[in-house]
């Protein structure tokens, strides 16, 4: 909790997705069929998964970004789920005639996910509300890396106001991407940090990117924990919490949300990383994608153990 006793407010920026999640013994080969043992219809998307995690952990969370036409089924489904989680939706921009993204996801017996997604290309042309509206009473901003096209100016303004900007990176970034310098914290996945830097080693990739950005840099590596650069530019590691993973969908997003919240609460970087690791581990131990994010008491019990 923040020093004032009031839960910090986090602004999450991204594009919500309606997920159809199938559990299968193994992902079927090309041209074949497989029967699923379970089907779940859930809401997802990187920033929305993070927002759900923040709300479950006791933070106040607002969401900004584009969604499809108000009359379509998917947007109505997602709004219902967001309301149930207590996520503020007044800054979401409805885009008439467009479709809210939909994904089909297969979770195999090891918990690994394989997915395909459709995003209407016109969603990228969204214009977000005014920065004063979005950043009022905001202690941190969490952004999907793919959304820089419509939120770079907002992120730069947040940094000008002293508000941390955490970017969750789940795809390779161009070295000219404005989010590299607009962010205060860049949280990569291992594969993406190596691809972005053009280096086949996490620590070396982080060090190369450190020459291009003043942001804090880290790379998550699933059960191998998180590697990050300290204030002197040297790599350190935060171990993962061992769990029997059954569903890794949304784990990185939940990690990003927990990290952003703990940072906004006044926790130091090592503490925020450990808090995020515990939150993501609990999520992986249950099915449901981002909607399997744990409650605060569960995370604190795991940390205490």
Write the SSE topology.
Elements: E1 9-13, E2 17-23, E3 38-44, H1 46-56, E4 60-67, H2 73-85, E5 88-94, E6 102-107, E7 113-118, H3 131-135, E8 140-144, H4 148-160, E9 165-169, H5 179-182, E10 185-189, H6 190-197, H7 202-210, E11 216-220, E12 226-229, E13 235-238, H8 251-264, H9 269-284, H10 296-304
Parallel strand pairs: 1-4, 1-8, 2-6, 4-5, 8-9, 9-10, 10-11
Antiparallel strand pairs: 2-3, 6-7, 11-12, 12-13
Helix pairs in contact: 1-8, 6-7, 8-9, 9-10
Detailed description of the structure:
There is one protein chain. The protein is α/β, with parallel strands linked by helices. It is globular, with a radius of gyration of 18 Å. The chain is built from ten helices and 13 strands. Helix 1 packs across helix 8 (251-264) and helix 6 (190-197) crosses helix 7. The protein has helices at residues 46-56, 73-85, 131-135, 148-160, 179-182, 190-197, 202-210, 251-264, 269-284, 296-304, and strands at 9-13, 17-23, 38-44, 60-67, 88-94, 102-107, 113-118, 140-144, 165-169, 185-189, 216-220, 226-229, 235-238. The mean pLDDT is 94. 33% of the residues lie in helices and 24% in strands. The protein has a nine-stranded mixed sheet, with helices on both faces. Strands 3-2-6-7 form a four-stranded mixed sheet.
